[in-house]
TrEMBL record, chain A:
Function: Catalyzes the removal of elemental sulfur from cysteine to produce alanine. It supplies the inorganic sulfur for iron-sulfur (Fe-S) clusters. Plays a role in both tRNA-processing and mitochondrial metabolism. Involved in the 2-thio-modification of both 5-carboxymethylaminomethyl-2-thiouridine in mitochondrial tRNAs and 5-methoxycarbonylmethyl-2-thiouridine (mcm5s2U) in cytoplasmic tRNAs.
Gene: SPL1
Family to which this protein belongs: Belongs to the class-V pyridoxal-phosphate-dependent aminotransferase family. NifS/IscS subfamily.
Pfam families in alphabetical order: Aminotran_5
Catalysed conversion reaction: (sulfur carrier)-H + L-cysteine = (sulfur carrier)-SH + L-alanine
TM annotation in the entry: none
Gene3D superfamilies: Aspartate Aminotransferase, domain 1, Type I PLP-dependent aspartate aminotransferase-like (Major domain)
SUPFAM superfamilies to which the protein is assigned, alphabetical: PLP-dependent transferases
UniProt protein name: Cysteine desulfurase, mitochondrial
EC supergroup of this enzyme: transferase
GO molecular function: cysteine desulfurase activity; iron-sulfur cluster binding; metal ion binding; pyridoxal phosphate binding
Keyword Transferase attributed: yes
TrEMBL record, chain B:
PANTHER family: LYR MOTIF-CONTAINING PROTEIN 4, PROTEIN C6ORF149
Domain (Complex 1 LYR protein): residue spans on this chain: 11-68
Protein's name in the database: LYR motif-containing protein 4
Pfam family, one: Complex1_LYR
Family that this chain belongs to: Belongs to the complex I LYR family.
Biological processes annotated in GO: iron-sulfur cluster assembly
A single cellular component GO annotation: mitochondrion
Organism of this sequence: Wickerhamomyces ciferrii (strain ATCC 14091 / BCRC 22168 / CBS 111 / JCM 3599 / NBRC 0793 / NRRL Y-1031 F-60-10)
Length: 465, 100
């Protein structure tokens, strides 16, 4: 079994070097090219240094080189209609919205209040309950740190889950340093939290529960309404990170008993650098502000508001509310097409719940391939192996780990994000490209060879050093 | 109510043509395809509307949206980026590739 280990050690860097040498890896355009891949590989073993991918894939000279964008969970393109609203604030309306002594201030203030209403309408809130922030990360920080700090004399405990976004988990860790107790709820293999476990975790001194609506890596939708009911019954504040959910699934803060909610603008085709937090007024949620100063935004978030960003955000909310069913129909259709195309390949699996999911986020694991090398082989498609925040490190996704996936599976997963601007043509291209590249990489993999020979990989004793 | 005359069919058709023209002028592949699809579907959705007042409202809203589309497609032409891998290159770029 010693030799097995050696093959792997040799072939991994080789594959990566070959892939790196090819900036324009394009899919095979002729069937004959694809069928000769394995022969080429055998030749290649005798001729090191030659670019096999160059031989295997023909570059389509007649098309462009810019990759297809399929990472809608990281960010979305700014809608031209949103930009149109923003432009007048960069060309003429430059007043400080807090200047209440002259017309320049009044006109921008009026537009900001209009946007506040558009944001509030999207989630069924009152405009007075919307606080503009710099984005969902700031909103999450405000909620997780602000509420427990305000009630810290009597309450010392907060509850969240293991699959939350990094900014929630990191804020919670900060609170632990300040002497708070944090319970991290585990999730089942579908990625959903257990409501009974939540009820059991609630203590007398629990002040806040924070559960996200749609997961950013696997697209799983948590039972927000039921969680809201439990929190209201126990008189605990309920915060939900809805950055990935707002405008994509119906959200109503009153129906779902949400007390605090984080929203991001650039996930719904708005400008980057702006977001909002919903803070309930009845029953009133009180919190310590993180940023203090001039007392703007009810004193919860001081600092001059940015009219161009906020009106862009408002317009994005208006459009996504009006077009929610239209956009979702399109996204669901493309998502189904993509899932059918990818899951029809052998040894692939969809991560996260099949029923409780947002269609625009498809997370698939390709066994016997490393996600990062597949991403390198897919230079013509803009994809991510998980959240943008952790993709810089080669660490496997903690979300998939929480689902009970092993390292190999977590390493071989890729997230596909479909949005309003994705086309059928792009999805067809992606399915074809992934099919070809996965087959190609598996041909190079000694593990794959063994699997095809029927060797159970778990039975192998890997030699140590 | 009865005083409002329904808009002429030609008016609607002309507006539709303007929408398609403005949408197809987007330089960005994704925006172009989205607005073409959205415009077609929006006109299709409202094709059975008969109430004159509702028709007038729809038409005036559409006229405002058309202006946005015309402005933004012009802006899109001012800032162009590389073509996508699913998008054919312009003819003269293709010729450039061949001479390389």
């Amino acid at each position: 079994m010693h030799c097995v280990k050696n093959i792997i050690k040799v072939s991994r860097p080789l594959i990566q070097k070959r892939l790196l040498n090819n900036s324009a890896v394009n899919p095979a355009t002729s069937a004959s090219a694809a069928s000769t891949i394995s022969n080429k590989i055998k030749e290649e073993l005798h001729k090191p240094g030659q670019d096999i991918i160059k031989n295997a894939f023909q570059v389509n000279q007649d098309n462009g080189t810019r990759p297809i964008y399929l990472d809608a969970q990281a960010t979305t393109p700014t809608d031209p209609r949103v930009l149109d609203v923003m432009l007048k604030f960069y060309t003429g309306l430059y007043g400080n919205p807090h200047s209440n002594t002259h017309a320049y201030g009044w006109e921008t203030d009026k537009e900001i209040e209009k946007s506040r209403k558009q944001v509030a309408d999207l989630i069924g809130a009152d405009p007075k309950e919307i606080i503009f922030t710099s984005g969902a990360t700031e909103s999450n920080n405000m909620a997780i740190k602000g509420v427990p700090r305000f009630y810290n004399k009597t309450k010392k405990h907060i509850i969240t889950s293991k699959t939350e976004h990094k900014c929630i988990l990191d804020s919670a860790r900060h609170l632990q340093d300040e002497g708070f107790d944090v319970t991290y709820l585990s999730v089942n293999e579908d990625g959903l939290i257990d409501l009974e476990e939540l009820e059991k975790a609630i203590r007398k001194d629990t002040v806040l529960v924070s559960i996200m609506a749609v997961n950013n890596e696997i697209g799983v939708i948590q039972p927000i309404e039921e969680i809201g009911k439990i929190c209201r019954k126990n008189k605990i504040f309920f915060h939900s990170d809805c950055a990935q959910a707002v405008g994509k699934i119906p959200i109503d803060v009153n129906k779902m008993n949400i007390d605090l909610m984080s929203i991001s603008s650039h996930k719904i085709y708005g400008p980057k650098g702006v977001g909002a937090i919903y803070v309930r007024r009845r029953p009133r949620v009180r919190m310590d502000p993180i940023i203090t100063g001039g007392g703007q935004e009810r004193g919860l978030r001081s600092g001059t508001l940015s009219p161009p960003l906020i009106t862009g955000f408002g317009e994005a909310c208006r459009i996504i509310k009006e077009d929610m069913s239209y956009d979702q129909k399109h996204i669901e259709r493309l998502s189904k097409k993509l899932m059918d195309g990818l899951l029809s390949m052998e040894h692939t699996q969809l991560n996260g719940s099949k029923q409780h999911r947002y269609a625009g986020c498809v997370n698939v694991s390709f066994a016997y391939i490393e996600g990062e090398s597949l991403l390198m082989a897919l230079k013509d498609i803009a994809l991510s192996s998980g959240s943008a925040c952790t993709s810089a490190s080669l660490e496997p996704s903690y979300v998939l780990h929480a689902l009970g996936a092993d390292d190999a599976l977590a390493h071989s997963s890729i997230r596909f994000g479909i949005g309003r601007f994705t086309t059928d043509e792009e999805i067809d291209y992606v399915i074809k490209a992934i099919n070809e590249r996965v087959e190609f990489l598996r041909e190079l993999s000694p593990l794959w060879e063994m699997v095809k020979e029927g060797i159970d990989l778990n039975s192998i004793e890997w030699s140590g050093h | 109510m009865s005083s409002i005359t329904p808009p002429a069919k030609e008016q609607v058709i002309q507006l539709y043509r303007q929408f398609i023209r403005a949408s197809s002028r987007f330089n960005n592949y994704n925006f172009r395809h989205y607005f073409l699809r959205r415009s077609r579907d929006a006109f299709k959705e409202s094709k059975d509307v008969k109430d004159p007042e509702q028709l007038h409202n729809l038409l005036s809203k559409a006229r405002e949206e058309l202006q946005v589309l015309q402005r933004q497609s012009s802006i899109s032409q001012m800032y162009s980026f590389d073509k996508l891998v699913v998008e054919p290159l312009d003819r003269h770029h293709r010729n450039l590739n061949e001479t390389k």
